[in-house]
């Protein structure tokens, strides 16, 4: 069973607030990812990291930023939340060795009012 | 860029019926992964296929990858309400660290 955690699970916040979504994994995986998922099911990659101090933007334009100071920790920050940021955010990790299956956290459901 | 298209988009079946979900890639796959998601939760890895013609089964779920490695199918035999959820195929994007997912199939099983 994969050990990847996200907090908070649910967050309702007002416009303009700064928020950080936490993601941690205890598997020692090098690669970590943040996805945004619409109600229509599709996952959109917004950030990924292939190791400490290495982060890249994904395909979906996002006003969020990420950091990877430690292998196990990959937080996502929104400096000024807007209603358009309302979504489900999923964090995932995978190994560098051979197989590429991803292990997902339970997600954070963000609502910006 | 590589894309994964799934069909059907949604599926409602009676308990006990068989069903198939398809995933088609715009480029040759270097591995195809199937995931299941329950509403409001993260994805759970189901199966991985890497070789052309490969087939894997787990309980009542069978996944296949075609010889050309551009299409995969997920077949559920004698469906149960516990099979309900969203099924997504995923694959590493060729030449990058990125990962892409299919458009998703929402399955509902009526008891």
Brief account:
Chain A is built from no helices and eleven strands.
Comma- or semicolon-separated keywords:
heterodimer, A: 113 residues, mainly beta, Immunoglobulin-like, four-stranded antiparallel β-sheet, 11 strands, B: 111 residues, six-stranded mixed β-sheet, five-stranded antiparallel β-sheet
Q: Would you kindly provide a written description of the structure presented here, covering whatever features stand out?
A:
The complex is a heterodimer of chains A (113) and B (111). Chain A is mostly beta strands and 113 residues long. Chain A has a single domain (4-112), classed as Immunoglobulin-like (Sandwich). In chain A, 0% of the residues lie in helices and 50% in strands. In chain A, strands 2, 4, 5, 6, 9, 10 and 11 form a 7-stranded mixed β-sheet that branches. Chain A starts with a strand and ends with a strand. Chain B has one domain: Immunoglobulins (Immunoglobulin-like, Sandwich), CATH 2.60.40.10. In chain B, 0% of the residues lie in helices and 55% in strands. Chain B has strands at 4-7, 10-14, 19-25, 32-37, 43-49, 55-58, 61-65, 71-76, 85-92, 99-101, 105-110. Chains A and B meet through strand 4, strand 5, strand 9 and strand 10 of A and strand 5, strand 9 and strand 10 of B.
Oligomer: heterodimer
Mean pLDDT of chain B: 92
Count of β-strands of chain A: 11
User: Would you give the CATH topology of chain A?
Assistant: Immunoglobulin-like
Work out the largest interface and the residue count of each chain.
A-B, 30 and 24 residues
Number of helices of chain A: 0
Instruction: Give the strand content of chain B.
Output: over 45%
Topology of helices and strands:
The complex is a heterodimer of chains A (113) and B (111).
Chain A: E1 4-7, E2 10-13, E3 19-25, E4 31-37, E5 43-51, E6 54-57, E7 64-66, E8 76-78, E9 87-94, E10 103-104, E11 108-112
Parallel strand pairs in A: 2-11
Antiparallel strand pairs in A: 1-3, 3-8, 4-5, 4-9, 5-6, 7-8, 9-10, 9-11
Chain B: E1 4-7, E2 10-14, E3 19-25, E4 32-37, E5 43-49, E6 55-58, E7 61-65, E8 71-76, E9 85-92, E10 99-101, E11 105-110
Parallel strand pairs in B: 2-11
Antiparallel strand pairs in B: 1-3, 3-8, 4-5, 4-9, 6-7, 7-8, 9-10, 9-11
